[in-house]
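Sample entry (165 residues):
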Amino acid sequence: IKNTYQRLENDGVLMPEEYGPEAAYRQLAATQNRPNPAITRALLQCVAAERNRLPAQEDLAQRAKQWIAAHLSEDFSLEDICAALYVSKGHLCREFKRSANDTVMGYVEKQRMEKAAALLSRRRYSYAQLAGMVGYKDSHYFSKVFHKYMERRAAPAGSAKEKRP
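Predicted structure, serialized as tokens:
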């Protein structure tokens, strides 16, 4: 079972908690470490059913983008996205970079900053209000990130600020 879960995790599939390795280990421990073929078969059937329920991995970046768009105003982490999509962090990061040519959290930041810029252009909000509307808890941190993003966005392509000695 441990090898099966390791292979599934390497393939980028994580299972809900009740089908995860910890649950399997608990069930095996209940049989006093004597493998029970019925439990093993049932666990593997649950894994296969969950795997078949998921869309093809080719849409992984698209599914991640949809999840991000739906939760943009919330404070979430990369682990939250992975858990929602039942994939490992490494697999999501690799597939997202390959497909979207950006990191997952880099994409999240761009989406949040673009939403904040759009909100700011329509109406006057305080940074505290904007921060909350785009998923930041700390308005001071949001302000720093937003200003830095807007400076980069306003800079002409290919130009770099000169560094002072």
